[in-house]
Amino acid sequence: MSNYHIKHLEEYYQVYRKSVRNPEIFWEEIAEEHFLWRKKWDTVLEWDFATPEVKWFQGAQLNITENCIDRHLATRGDKTAILFEPNNPDDDAEHITYNQLYRRVNQFANVLKEQGVKKGDRVCIYVPMIPELAIATLACARIGAIHSVVFAGFSATALATRINDSDCKIVITSDGSYRGAKTIDLKGIVDEALESCDGVESVLVAKRINSDITMKEGRDKWLQPLLDEASNQCKAEVMNAEDPLFILYTSGSTGKPKGMVHTTAGYMVYTAYTFKNAFQYRENDVYWCTADIGWITGHSYIVYGPLCNGATTVMFEGVPSYPDYSRFWDIVEKHKVSQFYTAPTAIRALAKQGVEFVEKHDLSSLKVLGSVGEPINEEAWHWYNDNIGKGKSPIIDSWWQTETGGIMITPIPYVTPTKPTYATLPFIGIQPCIMDEDGQELKGNQVEGRLCIKFPWPSIARTIWGNHQRYKDTYFSTYENKYFTGDGALRDEVGYYRITGRVDDVIIVSGHNLGTAPIEDAINEHPAVAESAIVGFPHDIKGSALYGYVTLKDSGEGRNHDNLRIEINQLISDRIGPIAKLNKIQFTEGLPKTRSGKIMRRILRKIAEKDTSNLGDISTLLNPECVQDIMDNAL
Ligand code: PRX
């Protein structure tokens, strides 16, 4: 028997050792015993980080939806698979059983087929957090289409870039979405995006807010009538282990977003196994991850991981502040949530509102608390531990990335003793290491450097859609034969890992990854702007917020700075989305540059952080005089 469910620390160490000494034997046992295969594999793992190439379970055939749905029908048909909690607390929650999910996914899959979608086609899903989002995702997987879910908070331009990059010929959306007291005209955003997407042939529209929208003849179709007509039986497409399951875009430090490609078998095995252990999920638990399915956290730990385990997974449409700041705790109480997984930014925002909002609610159902997306600061960790966990529900500070597909470093609750701000120990099968800037591995404990992974795990992204060279350059070229995460980390005296933050030009704002380049490109589109540079600075709710240094053409003679700030943020909002707006915008005479013309962000970062005691040697800059001016006018 493989150790599918780890229950104590000694067992963790024992299983961990086995998983790194004999990874192939270990993962083969897990795959054999806990999943449904149409055909077993010929080889467990083939890999080479130099090419780079990683293949798990080559030769195997399967369909992930048979693992997420069909195989549960005999034993869990009437169990709630998806528990949908709507934006408005007065509306009823919807309990979608495994039987119902089976039928709805099949109907949706048949609609996609009727629209001409075939195995390998890319389908863009731009849908808010309503059941159709999860169902559309699974429907794609049912017929072997590659889903590309785009977070429904992205702008028309960002959506168009993603649709075009992966050549989606169909877009699934809704008439609009609810967000607290607001409604958002999602279909209008899609219409705008599609003005620059020639390849899109059809748009399927779910009805959510009953708004009056325009439907383009021949292209746009209401979803419901098509679903009503469709059969609720749809044979699952037989997929090869390494067939792509989905593309999900993430920001890079330069250039356009990277379409990370995840494949079928390895992703399934790893997300299911990590879900079971990292959340210690038991049969009757109600599990809730507050992320949006538009991010990897939602893909792996709202949809695939939980459903593969036959779990009940909550999908929440709304926001933590609506109708007031007790909404999360109201939902925990109402649905007796056992595992609660959220981001530090949400914890900080709720902590700021005071414990009154928590105290009104019975949170005794909670057994495990999770944190993901950015480093959790000590204060937020304690608030979460004391007020939500009441000191008895362990916090799993789980570190991972869009690229890793699943949780990589995390305490296992009730197994690994936790330590505030530490992600603690590598998950089973994960071999992290810390490197110095010269490419040497820092062995032993009490070291700090850059976090890499030495050996492949089943859910590592296999490539960047349409650009394998960029995949190689970004992840496998900094350190030979290692996957470079882009994060800094330290290992303490007992071998616990603490993630210290990004070491590249990616800035994590409210748990969302933002690359500086696309934001600077948006700012530079403003006719009055000569050039700009973005850095992050500490923010008590968002973790990091964005600080923009902007040089105006002709020194901005006669321009009103406040108006310019509004216009610049509007441009960013239009090009990327409101999440990328700048908190501070400083107008500068010039930006500090090296003699080769590279902007010295390190200096700008220090000024934004109000830490100018040691700016280093600035005399070698092309234009050292601008540094004093920037410091004098810092915001
Ligand atoms: O910097 C790390 C941070 O989020 C980055 C990955 O972002 P994304 O691909 O959007 O995926 C987020 C959800 C998995 C990482 O490179 N990060 C994620 N989790 C943590 C974290 N930083 C510190 N502690 C964490 N627990």
TrEMBL record:
One of its GO terms (biological process) is acetyl-CoA biosynthetic process from acetate. Residues 70-461 form the AMP-dependent synthetase/ligase domain. Coiled coil: none annotated. Its EC number is 6.2.1.1. It comes from the Bacteria. Gene3D superfamilies: 3.30.300.30, N-terminal domain of ligase-like (3.40.50.12780). This is Acetate--CoA ligase. InterPro entries: Ac_CoA_lig, ACAS_N, AMP-bd_C, AMP-bd_C_sf, AMP-binding_CS, AMP-dep_synth/lig_dom, ANL_N_sf. Belongs to the ATP-dependent AMP-binding enzyme family. Transmembrane segments: none annotated. The keyword Nucleotide-binding applies. Keywords: Acetylation, ATP-binding, Ligase, Nucleotide-binding. Residues 519-598 form the AMP-binding enzyme C-terminal domain. GO terms for molecular function: acetate-CoA ligase activity; AMP binding; ATP binding. It is an enzyme of class 6 (ligase). Residues 12-68 form the Acetyl-coenzyme A synthetase N-terminal domain. It comes from Psychroserpens burtonensis. Signal peptide: none annotated.
